[in-house]
Amino acid sequence: MKNILVMGSGLAGMTAALKLVEEGAAVTLVSPAYSERAQSVMAMGGINAALNTKQENDSVDEHFADTMRGGSDLNDPEAVANLVQRAPEIIRWLEEIGVNFTRDEKGRVDLRNFGGQKKKRTAYAGARTGKQIATAIIAKCRKYEAAGQIKRLTGWRFHSLLIEGQECAGAVLLHENTNELQSLVADAVIMAVGGPNGVFGKTTGSRLNDGYAAGMLLEQGVEFSNLEMIQYHPTTVHTPSKRMLITEAARGVGGRLYVIREGQPWYFMEEWFPGYGALMPRDVVSQSIYKVCNEMKLGINGSQEVYLDVSHLSPEIIDVQLDEVVSICSKFLNVNPYKEPIPVAPGIHYFMGGIKTDKDHTTNLARLFAAGECSAQYHGANRLGGNSLLGAICGGWVAAESSLLVGPMDKAAAEKIGEQQLETANQELQHWEKRANTSIKGYVQIKQELSELMYGAMGIYRKERQLLEAKKRLEEMNNDTAESWYHHHFYEYKTLSANILLARGMVESALARKESRGAHQRIDYSEKNDTQFKKSTNAVFLNNSICIEFN
Amino acid sequence: MSIRINIKRQENGAKEAYWQSFEYSGELHVSIGTLINNLNSEMLEKDEGERPIRFDCSCEQGLCGACAMVVNEKPVLSCQLFCDDLVQENNEITIHPLSKFPVISDLAVDRSQMFEVMKDMKLWLEEPAKVRTANLTLQYEVSQCLMCGSCLEVCPNYSLGELFTGMSSAMSMTNLTLLSEDKAYKKQYTQRVYDGCSKSLACQEVCPMDIPIVEAISKMNRVSVWGMWNMFTKLR
């Protein structure tokens, strides 16, 4: 029987675990918190599948074309072909396991419009699709947990990968509360740890997705692709704790974007993009808001914000499909969306780039697979709304299937590496414990500076000079971390240097891509350049520096 | 304006608990979660070696249930309750961890038992779900349960490790019963919820998702009556 280690218990991790046990493997499912806390539950809008139930002649081919166009052709076409092909099957499976999808008048799974797609293709469960899907999948996993086929390790973090020769042999895990370390040997490891929100600080996502694992994997030689592709969701709101998302469904059901020009509302998206209007792909909407606020200086009171208006919609639609929007607006903004427009601005929402995988979700290391937001294959330079839940579930399935194909491993060699690496990790922990009284000033400042630096250099529009400055500063910061100490929390302490390394990967990728494509817009290279750059950036950490290639 | 924040602290399960008070004069239209983050930032800024306040946190917008704690004697999600709403009458806010679970550190508690009992009760579907559109709304509502533990905090009948498992498990049982024709969940419900529930309905008041708990359990009770009625007709 194969032993597979799955890191992360959001939708990608759980679907991988389910597929694995159904095929007879034993799974260890590791996560810092229960699946109810995973970022997946925050996905509100929906999940795409060309079910073609709306008399619009939708097809898998059109879903493919929209996804590729949305991603400016950086997506892996083979992977996307598989994604859209499996989408209807995924919806059927979710229905079968008890996801409470919203139904149409005939009792079928209802579909609605989402950005970058003219056809109604987005299935949804009220205003909380991710949560409803998670509830059903959690119950399904519970059966195998009770039978001992899925072993959950909750409260544990990824520490490092066990690498034997050119193969992954398992991982070292760290318990966040007790600082206990353990090494686990496995036939294969599937990373499903989510996006690296921690590199930027405030994003729309979960605080648990801190980016440590990605930084550590980069340090250990795992290749990353398209790290510069970071999605700014066009409609987010500022709160003291974080950026909060106003779901794309608000525009899907007819919400409009405007600013005041010469005393009148000006619906700039509708004027610039007749047809799609405010439902253009997210990168285009964010860039348009940037232009309106910065080049035309028409942002609300000179700010970076524009109005999102749903007040013309019927109260029933707002009640049923946008209840989360109402709740955010009334609680955090003191805005009543039934009557007033919502001031919104673009904010970081999704990382299209990540661990480089192919259509089978294999990485550059044998026996290591990746799925969900931490990996890159489906979304290219920009992700379509409704494709992330789909990508997480499809990715979980495919990674599971691929991981079952690995051959027998040299268990003795793997155990030996495990022991050695555990010993090194324990030494590092002891070293940290001994330095308990050193000042933490540097740590707090570096963390703050990292967030500001990344938001500055990796904004909606990027320029060479700023990127070069960020690159230089990140290298200095990397040296400074050796002197800065955080004695309150070993894991958080370790996160800082991992975040800085990943940040370097992002900045270097952005520097290398001297063109504008999808979520990556360069002021100094404002055109798309297919001859040179219709390829993925590939970042590797070699001899203490980041090397970028295109392939 | 300066307000006083009292927080019950405990380094870990093996150490003694103690109360610590903080004076806070920062922004007041912030959630309790942000308030704690601000207190921690001030602490780290001073760099006097004081231990930051630990609490669980993930989504920071009321969707994940991680940050449930007791604020002014009421269980809440700390990201959903605002300081300015609390200090209108009294310039003091008192925070302690959920009291029915073992403390991990400060405001972070070990809720694993809530999850474990659901395995014991076999709360999963054995057959493909049956879609009955009439049930959809209630299924949706009960599926919103965050497993935060707020309902158990105020429940006069719940204590850790006892037979009665409370409303977090009852919400799952309701969903599964509505999605299937399986009687097994109903049986678990009778033994582990119905028999132990004194119907104080305090849970309904505190549920952060406003799940219609009363509606859910009366539906479960009705299903049981129907079950008996069917049995009688068969016997006749």
TrEMBL record, chain A:
<dbReference type="InterPro" id="IPR037099">
    <property type="entry name" value="Fum_R/Succ_DH_flav-like_C_sf"/>
</dbReference>
<feature type="domain" description="FAD-dependent oxidoreductase 2 FAD-binding">
    <location>
        <begin position="4"/>
        <end position="389"/>
    </location>
</feature>
<dbReference type="InterPro" id="IPR030664">
    <property type="entry name" value="SdhA/FrdA/AprA"/>
</dbReference>
<dbReference type="Pfam" id="PF02910">
    <property type="entry name" value="Succ_DH_flav_C"/>
</dbReference>
<protein>
    <submittedName>
        <fullName>Succinate dehydrogenase / fumarate reductase flavoprotein subunit</fullName>
        <ecNumber>1.3.5.1</ecNumber>
        <ecNumber>1.3.5.4</ecNumber>
    </submittedName>
</protein>
<dbReference type="Pfam" id="PF00890">
    <property type="entry name" value="FAD_binding_2"/>
</dbReference>
<keyword id="KW-0560">Oxidoreductase</keyword>
<feature type="domain" description="Fumarate reductase/succinate dehydrogenase flavoprotein-like C-terminal">
    <location>
        <begin position="448"/>
        <end position="540"/>
    </location>
</feature>
<dbReference type="InterPro" id="IPR015939">
    <property type="entry name" value="Fum_Rdtase/Succ_DH_flav-like_C"/>
</dbReference>
<keyword id="KW-0285">Flavoprotein</keyword>
<dbReference type="InterPro" id="IPR036188">
    <property type="entry name" value="FAD/NAD-bd_sf"/>
</dbReference>
<dbReference type="InterPro" id="IPR003953">
    <property type="entry name" value="FAD-dep_OxRdtase_2_FAD-bd"/>
</dbReference>
<dbReference type="GO" id="GO:0008177">
    <property type="term" value="F:succinate dehydrogenase (quinone) activity"/>
</dbReference>
<dbReference type="InterPro" id="IPR027477">
    <property type="entry name" value="Succ_DH/fumarate_Rdtase_cat_sf"/>
</dbReference>
UniProtKB/TrEMBL annotation, chain B:
<dbReference type="Pfam" id="PF13183">
    <property type="entry name" value="Fer4_8"/>
</dbReference>
<dbReference type="InterPro" id="IPR025192">
    <property type="entry name" value="Succ_DH/fum_Rdtase_N"/>
</dbReference>
<dbReference type="GO" id="GO:0008177">
    <property type="term" value="F:succinate dehydrogenase (quinone) activity"/>
</dbReference>
<dbReference type="InterPro" id="IPR036010">
    <property type="entry name" value="2Fe-2S_ferredoxin-like_sf"/>
</dbReference>
<dbReference type="InterPro" id="IPR017900">
    <property type="entry name" value="4Fe4S_Fe_S_CS"/>
</dbReference>
<comment type="similarity">
    <text>Belongs to the succinate dehydrogenase/fumarate reductase iron-sulfur protein family.</text>
</comment>
<keyword id="KW-0560">Oxidoreductase</keyword>
<dbReference type="InterPro" id="IPR012675">
    <property type="entry name" value="Beta-grasp_dom_sf"/>
</dbReference>
<dbReference type="InterPro" id="IPR017896">
    <property type="entry name" value="4Fe4S_Fe-S-bd"/>
</dbReference>
<dbReference type="InterPro" id="IPR006058">
    <property type="entry name" value="2Fe2S_fd_BS"/>
</dbReference>
<keyword id="KW-0408">Iron</keyword>
<keyword id="KW-0004">4Fe-4S</keyword>
<keyword id="KW-0001">2Fe-2S</keyword>
<protein>
    <recommendedName>
        <fullName>succinate dehydrogenase</fullName>
        <ecNumber>1.3.5.1</ecNumber>
    </recommendedName>
</protein>
<dbReference type="Pfam" id="PF13085">
    <property type="entry name" value="Fer2_3"/>
</dbReference>
<keyword id="KW-0003">3Fe-4S</keyword>
<dbReference type="InterPro" id="IPR009051">
    <property type="entry name" value="Helical_ferredxn"/>
</dbReference>
<keyword id="KW-0816">Tricarboxylic acid cycle</keyword>
<keyword id="KW-0479">Metal-binding</keyword>
<feature type="domain" description="4Fe-4S ferredoxin-type">
    <location>
        <begin position="136"/>
        <end position="166"/>
    </location>
</feature>
<dbReference type="InterPro" id="IPR004489">
    <property type="entry name" value="Succ_DH/fum_Rdtase_Fe-S"/>
</dbReference>
<dbReference type="InterPro" id="IPR050573">
    <property type="entry name" value="SDH/FRD_Iron-Sulfur"/>
</dbReference>
